[in-house]
Amino acid sequence: MATSVLPHGAPTRPYRRVPWSPRAWSQALYLTGGIPAQLVPLLLVVLGSLARPRVLWSVLLLVVVFLAVPLLTGIHRHRLRATAGALIPAQPVIPDRLSRRGIVAAARARATWRQLGYHLLAAPALAVAAIVAFGMWLAGILYALVYAYAWALPAGSLLQRGQSSPLPGHLPPFSDIPMDAYLTAGGIALLVAAPWLTAAVGALDGRAARALLGPSRAEELEYQVERLAQTRAGVVDAADTERRRLERDLHDGTQQRLVSLAMRLGMARAERPDAAQAHRVIAEAHEEAKAALTELRHLVRGLHPAVLEDRGLDAALSGVAARLPIPVRLTVDVPRRPPPTIEAVAYFVVSEGLTNITKHAQASQAEVFVQRANDRLHIIVSDDGVGGADPARGTGLAGLAKRAASVDGTFDIASPPGGPTLLTVDLPCAQ
Length: 431
Description:
Helix content: 55-70%
Radius of gyration: 33 Å
Number of strands: 5
Structural class: alpha+beta
Strand order of the largest sheet: 1-2-3-5-4
Oligomer: single chain
Largest sheet: 5 strands, mixed
Distance between the termini: 22 Å
Number of helices: 15
Order of helices and strands: HHHHHHHHHHHHHEHEEHEE
């Protein structure tokens, strides 16, 4: 069993918020990088209020911000997904938004006003908080390292004199402590507090964005009902397709072999063969029976392999990889077994994905990565084939998407012409 880095956005163990933590520094940089995007809408409105004629420009720039709401929201959704791993569902798209009917529909939508509230009120306030956090980092570094550079400053400057001059007005023993010693201590205190303030501002930014940029609770429930209706129809279609496949496999494979076996035995019984002919007929019937049993085993394994139930995903997927004609690099990191339904979906997703690779991808090798991170099961199947995989072309990918959606999972495939192909599935596995 091997381990690997979690996919971006997957839950990780808590980190220590200390100034020397790379996570704290990266979070501070990401938070600071979002300041321009948070301030642009409000700055446009302020500039409009300063221009002449004031009313005309203010109204004009407010209209620009109103029309740019989807673009601004998309920028913040991408920013939070890239920097904080926060996945904010997209709002429903209003058709013909720039037409008169679309503008009226957008003006009547509560989601539009929630997003405007974020862009014009919450985002600027969060930007100010981010500036304060950045200032705390900067001041902490400058003050904590004052002894490293104050000596190089011009003679007589405040910091240069502070290395030997105490603060005025202090009684012994504090009057003997140089001013730069106080600055150094203050800088260290700021550096200790800065990661906590940064984390608090980042968490507040994520909560505000989810509440104002994402769908409301009622909209989310409506979306879930719609999705459940779609996945239910997809499950019914998938079950019907699977039933037809089983009927076809039984009719074209096992049933034909059993019919042939019965005919051979019936003809041998009617002809009353001698010992040599009887031995030959029995041998042929034996081979037919073994072939029929083999096909039945493959059919049963396709329904639900016993090794999956007995030994879990690692052993079951190892068996699938071993039967393929191309080498497969398999990585399974599942410390705790998922629920049986999720385990079965994961098995069939990987199995069908590898089958598609051998049939259509013209690949020389494939790679499978399966990892459980808290209450999510991440699956990645990739190959070095010709690419161009499209779920609409009936290669089984549409069935995989329906199978993942039936358990509220997500399915995504990236397969540019020329390859490589990357199939990503994310399944919930909370007990």
